[in-house]
Design goal:
By secondary structure, this protein is mostly helical. The protein has eleven helices and no strands. About 65% of the residues lie in helices and about 0% in strands.
């Protein structure tokens, strides 16, 4: 495995046209929404398509999503994204999380980060959202590492496993660096390329 190629891997946020380096609530909420979609048991392609459908209908802010309502999220948003199996469940999850974000943090994920005491508290606050577990929290925080002081999740076990298989020493890199998260994104994509990798 060519480490130089891994270091140039496109981040998932970049692929979706989300600019996390701007570190503003608008871009961070877009990534939060995308992370919820990526965190479900569906293919990455469907998650990306569904995010793009939210974008097409200009539903990339918590208030706009709440105004659209459950029926609209299920159809056309989820249906057009190809997100059929968990469409109702995920629509409920997104709506409840938009409500929580507005009620607890005035609609601001940056506020959530500011209120968190440390990395652990930040992760706990995220897993307190409806239906958000450790995987979705990891997806959301890993690409925010360079921009959020308290965002510093451990790489997923599958990432460590693939790195070990290709003799890539992750501990040689600063976890908060852009280089590290590009390597991480590249390893996650490798997981999708390697059939039956467990």
């Amino acid at each position: 495995m060519d480490i130089k190629r891994l270091k140039k891997s496109e981040l998932y946020s970049e692929e979706l046209g989300i600019y996390l380096k701007e570190n503003n609530d608008k871009e961070i909420f877009k990534w939060f929404l995308a992370s919820i979609l990526f965190g479900a048991r569906i293919s990455e392609t469907i998650a990306k398509n569904t995010y793009k459908t939210f974008e097409r209908y200009n539903l990339l802010e918590p208030r706009k999503i709440l105004k659209a309502g459950w029926d609209f999220l299920v159809n056309p948003i989820m249906r057009e994204g190809g997100y059929v199996r968990y469409d109702g469940k995920t629509s409920t999850q997104i709506l409840r999380n938009c409500e929580t974000l507005l009620q607890k943090y005035r609609g601001s994920l940056k506020e959530l980060h500011k209120e968190a005491q440390n990395s652990k508290d930040l992760e706990d606050r995220l897993t307190n959202f409806y239906g958000i577990g450790p995987i979705t929290t990891n997806i959301f925080l890993r690409e925010l590492r360079p921009f959020w002081e308290k965002a510093n999740p451990e790489p997923l076990p599958i990432v460590k496993k693939i790195a070990k298989r290709y003799k890539i020493k992750l501990d040689e890199y600063n976890k908060k660096s852009l280089t590290f998260i590009r390597i991480e994104a590249g390893l996650i994509r490798l997981r999708n390329e390697i059939k039956n990798f467990k």
